[in-house]
Every structure is written in structure tokens, then in C-alpha cells.
Specification:
This protein has nine helices and eight strands. The protein has about 270 residues and is α+β, with helices and mostly antiparallel strands. The strands form two sheets. A six-stranded antiparallel sheet has the order 5-4-3-8-7-6, with helices on both faces. A two-stranded antiparallel ribbon has the order 1-2. Keywords: DNA-binding, Glycerol metabolism, Transcription, Transcription regulation.
């Protein structure tokens, strides 16, 4: 037990490991061990040993072909653990409620959890069907609007590490053998998300329902969460869809501001609901 007012004794290895994780979290992509050692002023041998331990426990991913290291799935689990302890949900819940009031469609807030999205907030609009994306539910990130919005904000090597081969992809509701998922298809989808400023899916989670989502970026540009609305696809024309995108974009921008994030490029086709 540490007495009040006293400092905890420093554990050099633990301190260095946490510094490595914190440093990787500030980068836009995986980095070589030598550059990590240089940036932190640590001996290379120490960095290599600590990286090997962090890789073993899943907190760091090693990309052998590139000789680089990036954050692993266990690090994402720590991030989503923070989210599950309510800060993001508490900040986002009133924004999602306001979004649902303005849009008249069901809304939700989700975070990335490895290759899944984990739903933290779910607000059902009046006279709209129940959704599978209830609080605590996980769905494959590449199939959902929230997941695509967040994946599009990740560095390409991080996406490749999350989806190393076709076995990493779950099939969508609208997928057949001819439309199986693979990394090239995902890259095409994510490029469209970055181009348009929002993500969309149409019947890939639930037949007949579509969604649009926008990422919430933190101060480093990392996707802390995403906000989306889901609607009956056959009842929403282009003009109303653009207006829904605008409402989602505004909610995501406000949540990013509340967590002192950097915001994002506004969706170019965003409109206003009458």
C-alpha cells in the first residue's frame, strides 16, 4: 500500500512499456523499433525485448514484412474498456437523442473493438422497427456504417493488420459467394468513405434497412467512436438521405469537440432536414 502523499516507486520496465504504448498511440501508423527507441531515448535492446513481450500479450502487432510495430487488438480493448465505463456514452447519449429527434430515425453510437463495433448508445425513433444494434451488441465492423467510418480513419497498415486474410471477414446479409469480402474490396469501400466524408451500408446488416455514419475523431485523428442513423432504405430518397447525413455529421462533429478532438472534414453532400 502506498502512503498518502508519497510517490509510487518507479518500475523501469513497466514505465518504458507504457511509454512505448503511449508513443504508438500518437502515431498515424506502425513504426520501426529503431525509431521508437530514438523517439523515447531508450536502448534498442530494451525496446526490442519490451516489444516482444507486448506482441506476445496482444498489445502490439508486428508487421514482419515492413519491420514495423503498431497497436494491437488488446490495446483496442483497453480503449473500449474506457468507453464501457461511460464517458463516451454519457457525452454521446444526449447528442444521439437530439439526432433522433431531428432526423425521426433511430440512432446509435459505437466504438471499435478489434474487428467488431460495440454499441454504447442506442436510441429508437417512434414507429421505427427494433434494430439488432442494441447496447452491448457487437457486429462485424466492415459491414456497418459506424465500423466503416472508423476503419476509414485508421492508417492502411492498421487495417491490413486487422484483416490479414479472407478468414477475418464475416459475410453480410446481402452477400453471396460472388460478393465475398476481402481486403481489396474493403479498401475500395473505405476509399469511398474518405472521399465522401461519411460511411453507408444498405441492407448488409439487416435486409431492408440502410445506415449512414460519421467517425468521431480524437485529438490525434484516431477514431474514438462513430455516430449513425438507420432507416427503411426504400422510404428514403436522395434528398432526405443527404439531410440525414448532415444531421449525423453535425452530431459527430459536436462529440469530437466535446472530447477535444480535431473534428473531421464535413460530408460534402450534407443537407438540412426541413
Amino acid at each position: 500500500m502506498i502512503p498518502d502523499g508519497s510517490r509510487a516507486p518507479k518500475v523501469p520496465a513497466a514505465d518504458a512499456a507504457l511509454r512505448i504504448l503511449s508513443h504508438l498511440a500518437t502515431l498515424r501508423g506502425p513504426a520501426p523499433a529503431a525509431s521508437i527507441a530514438s523517439a523515447l531515448d531508450l536502448p534498442r535492446s530494451t525496446v526490442y525485448h519490451l516489444l516482444a513481450t507486448l506482441v506476445e500479450h496482444g498489445y502490439v502487432l508486428h508487421l514482419p514484412e515492413e519491420r514495423r510495430y503498431g497497436l494491437g487488438v488488446a490495446a483496442f480493448e483497453l480503449s473500449s474498456g474506457f468507453s464501457r465505463q461511460q464517458p463516451l456514452a454519457r457525452l454521446g447519449a444526449p447528442l444521439v437523442a437530439g439526432l433522433v429527434d431531428a432526423a425521426g430515425e433511430s440512432g446509435h453510437l459505437a466504438v471499435l473493438h478489434g474487428r467488431d463495433v460495440l454499441y454504447l448508445v442506442e436510441e429508437r425513433a417512434p414507429r421505427r422497427p427494433s434494430l439488432v444494434s442494441d447496447v452491448g451488441v457487437r457486429l462485424p465492423a466492415h459491414l456497418t456504417a459506424t465500423g466503416r467510418a472508423m476503419l476509414a480513419a485508421l492508417p492502411a497498415p492498421q487495417v491490413r493488420a486487422l484483416y490479414p486474410d479472407a478468414s477475418a471477414f464475416a459475410p453480410g446479409a446481402a452477400d453471396g459467394e460472388a460478393s465475398a469480402w476481402h481486403l481489396r474490396r474493403l479498401r475500395t469501400v473505405l476509399a469511398e468513405v474518405r472521399e465522401h466524408g461519411y460511411a453507408a451500408e444498405d441492407g448488409e446488416v439487416t435486409a431492408g434497412l440502410g445506415s449512414v455514419g460519421v467517425a468521431v475523431l480524437d485529438h490525434t485523428g484516431w477514431p474514438a467512436a462513430a455516430i449513425a442513423v438507420t432507416f427503411p432504405a426504400d422510404r428514403v430518397g436522395d434528398a432526405r438521405r443527404d439531410a440525414l447525413i448532415g444531421e449525423v455529421d453535425r452530431a459527430a462533429t459536436e462529440l469530437s469537440r466535446r472530447i477535444r478532438g480535431i473534428g473531421h472534414r464535413a460530408a460534402p453532400s450534407a443537407g438540412t432536414l426541413a
